[in-house]
Amino acid sequence: MSAANRTGCGGIASPAVRFSAFTGTLRMLAFVAAATLLWLSPALAAEGTLERGNGPEPDSLDPQRAQGLSAHQVLRDLYEGLVRTEADGALVPAAAEAIAVSPDGREYRFTLRADLRWSDGAAVAAGDFAYALQRALDPATAAPYAGVLLPIRGARERLGGAQIEIAVTAEDPRTLRIGLAAPQADFLHRLTLPVAFPVRAAAIAEHGTAWTRPGRLIGNGPYQLVAWTPQSQLVLERNPHHRAPPPIGRVRYHVTEDASQELKRFEAGELHLTETLPPGQLEWLRERFGEQVRIAPAYASFFFGLNLRQPQLANPAFREALSLAIDREILTRHISGNGEAPAYELVPPQPGQPGGRLAWAALSQSEREDLARQRLAQSGVDPATAVLEIRYNTSLLNRRLALAVSAMWRQVLGLDARLRAEEWRVFVQNRRLGRLTQVYRGGWFADYRHPANFLENFSSGSALNATGWQDPAFDALLARASADGSAAPALMADAEQRLLDAHVLIPLFHYTSKHLVSPELCGYTPHPLDQRPSWTLRWCEMEPRQGAGDRG
Predict the structure, then answer these.
(1) φ and ψ at residue 187, rounded to 5 degrees
(2) What domains are defined for the chain?
(3) Which of 351, 445, 461, 519 lies most in the core, judged by the most C-beta atoms within 10 Å?
């Protein structure tokens, strides 16, 4: 996905210490996994299908082109990156068995495991990782997450259209070298994202854009794709060539955009794990399902983005009026209602970390509404003739939030707002193009625990910046933060404050991780980034006898 870096790696220890930490963790994980598998029944490990709700239809199963959380959940089952994060945020080895970092923090050398295999049995090589990174930084790929790879030397110029080589080299089949333009404390965390997962150049060359379909998608993760029914479900089965076979042999991801319908399917025994909970029903859900309701804080934020390319929204006083008029306490208490916290910042507050905050956050709601009317008058926008659209992807929560906000704008500002619901892929495309959107639903579950993962989305060159806002001073603060680890927290806080003072977005609340988990399913652990790979789960019937290791 600094101050949030909890790995002990990535620039705060010597290369020898980093190497030792990774290899030591590797040996420990291998020992625990082997001890556990000795006690598992092979018959049980092959039985049953894990039925998972997964929200909207994945926008893509191309690791370099996927953007949505629903796609990333599936990709973490189908692929394996160089490193990955545990539920507690710790960074551990994955496809790489050893990592060496130069004393100046600019050169990374990855040694791949010798037993890496694609799902067709072919060996995974360092060149496959190099190809994926080069492909992500090719402007023709239009990778939404390409910005997280900008620390790589030559990446910024390459994305800008320059015909230069980036500093990514496969020295031999098991050795990958990556050079950075400057030290980057969170660089290894960035490599946990799907955009850095390996892909097969030959498959893309042979099948073109259809290479991600069943029978053609060749991954290197614990599972392989065997079926995909659009707008319905995806079916995964155990990858027979993966070095660590997952306990559950078959997984079916269901498209579940309607949280109420997803709840009914869980009640009927059709799902073992839901993607979310219906809004505003937490008390009843806990009475009905007890410990099957799993809610935990998440490093995530929900906001409304504002498209500054639209004439009305180019007016900062008008944007601030829109934000002031919203009662976030009402939204979290009565609309979302699943433990979310009102947000007056983009980056969720973390103990001991400075951050930005809306200047009027301490005012009462009535004081904010008075100030909202003042800002509206200063803007010169006539609410009798101004009409805004709130555009969102189809879901019950999104609709309820849009209805509530539009009612607040009408009551406080006399402004009408129209609601536009769209299927996820259409919504993402319109948001990216920026021609139709005015106010749009935005949300961000961090990919790794670092403020940069939120803030970089609003930098001038980010493909994820749907606001159209460009501020060289903001960009410069982020660049300085990436180059100066000791000053990074303060610089990030200054950057966030600049973003908030410009009212480019309207923070609404900080998400919780919220799911229903069947009592048949064990191994589920709340994750602050809401990542729940299927290979971490198992049937409770497979619990090891006393004395065996536990992978849960």
Answers:
(1) -60, -45
(2) 15-249+517-542 (3.40.190.10), 297-512 (3.10.105.10)
(3) 445
- Among 279, 288, 239, smallest CA distance to 260 is for 279
Tell me if 44 sits within 8 A of 220, measured CB to CB.
no
Q: Which pair of tokens denotes residue 83?
A: 């490193």
CB 513 within 8 A of CB 528: yes
Rounded mean pLDDT, 523-546: 84
Q: Are the C-beta atoms of 439 and 304 separated by less than 8 Å?
A: yes
In angstroms, what CA-CA distances link 466 with 139, 282, 332, 500?
18, 33, 25, 16
SS3 228: strand
Instruction: Please say if the pLDDT value at position 3 is more than 90.
Output: no
Residue 480: count of CB within 10 angstroms of its CB? 16
Note the pTM of the prediction, 2 decimals.
0.83
- 369 in Cβ contact with 363 (< 8 Å): no
Percent of the chain with pLDDT over 90: 80
Q: What is the pLDDT of residue 469?
A: 97
The 10s digit of each residue's pLDDT in 259-274 is 999 999 999 999 999 9
- Spatial separation of the C-alpha atoms in residues 398 and 444, rounded to whole Å: 14
Q: Provide the 10 A C-beta neighbour count for residue 371.
A: 16
Average pLDDT, the chain: 89
For residues 238 and 223, the answer to whether their CB atoms sit within 8 Å is: yes
Confidence of residue 47 (pLDDT cuts 50, 70, 90): low
Spatial contact of 69 and 443, defined as CB atoms under 8 Å apart: no
Residue (of 223, 109, 146) closest to 154 by Cα position: 146
Q: Per-residue pLDDT for 236 more than 90?
A: yes
CB atoms within 10 A of CB 162: 10
CB half-sphere exposure, 121, CA atoms < 13 A: 0
Residue type (1 letter), 285: L
Cβ within 8 Å of residue 331, ≥6 positions away: 342, 401, 404, 405, 508, 509
Instruction: Give the whole-angstrom CA distance, residue 243 versus residue 222.
Output: 8
Q: Taking a C-beta distance cutoff of 8 angstroms, is the pair 322, 440 a contact?
A: no
Amino acid found at 404: A
